[in-house]
Design goal:
By secondary structure, this protein is low in regular secondary structure. It has two helices and no strands. It is elongated. It starts with a helix and ends in a 24-residue tail after the last helix. The N terminus is likely disordered.
């Protein structure tokens, strides 16, 4: 009898585990809230307007994919590839974009409030008109990124690389954190940084501002302002 007990128990374990296996990532699943596309290849697809709220998109390859107007609220895109893709006009509040590779990605008009872009590769990314209130770009690579008319209230650029990034015409009320940020030729013409935190004179001296740029109290206008056109 003892010899029959073990197989029966094993069958019970298989039956118990079956639902969990059915819920594993499936790259063939359609774009639905909570979808699991972990490690999937989603290159060069037309996914504009898709509802991927809360989806698990870890390490998903979206190279050249159209995600314009998609719902990515609280989706997890950690380590995803978004090279030359577009999520323009998407809703991505609370989304996790940490460690993504998004060279020349179009984030224009995206709503990504309180989203995380920590340790992400975002060179030449377009954030024009984006709503980034409370977002974190800590240690992100943002060389030549465009933030024209972006809303940056409470945004954190701690230890980010902002070399040649364009922050002109951005808007924010309250603090914005630049602690340890690398700001070589960062464009801040006309920007009111009077409430910015973490800024040091050495950082400001590398930037490109003009007579209408406002600096925190105690900081001096660099002799090299305004910069030549880049």
């Amino acid at each position: 009898m003892k010899g029959l007990v073990v197989p029966a128990a094993a069958l019970g374990l298989v039956a118990f585990a079956a639902p969990s296996m059915a819920q594993a990532a499936s790259c063939k699943d359609s774009a639905t809230p909570g979808a699991d596309w972990t490690d999937c290849n989603k290159k060069a697809l037309m996914l504009g307007g898709s509802d991927l709220q809360g989806a698990n998109l870890v390490n998903t390859d979206f190279t050249l994919t159209d995600l314009r107007g998609a719902n990515l609220t609280e989706a997890n895109l950690e380590k995803a590839t978004l090279v030359r893709s577009s999520i323009a006009g998407a809703t991505a509040n609370g989304a996790n974009f940490s460690k993504i590779e998004a060279y020349r990605c179009n984030f224009a008009g995206v709503s990504a409030e309180k989203a995380s872009f920590v340790n992400s590769e975002l060179q030449r990314a377009n954030f024009s008109g984006a709503r980034l209130t409370g977002a974190s770009f800590e240690k992100a690579e943002l060389g030549r990124a465009n933030f024209d008319k972006a809303e940056l209230t409470g945004t954190r650029f701690t230890h980010a690389n902002l070399s040649r990034a364009d922050l002109t015409s951005t808007s924010f009320s309250g603090p914005i954190d630049f602690q340890g940020a690398f700001m070589f030729l960062t464009r801040i013409e006309g920007v009111d940084l009077s409430e910015a935190t973490g800024l040091e004179q050495e950082q400001v001296d590398m930037t490109c501002g003009d007579s209408s740029t406002k600096l925190p109290a105690g900081m001096n206008t660099p002799a090299g302002w305004p910069c030549a056109s880049d």
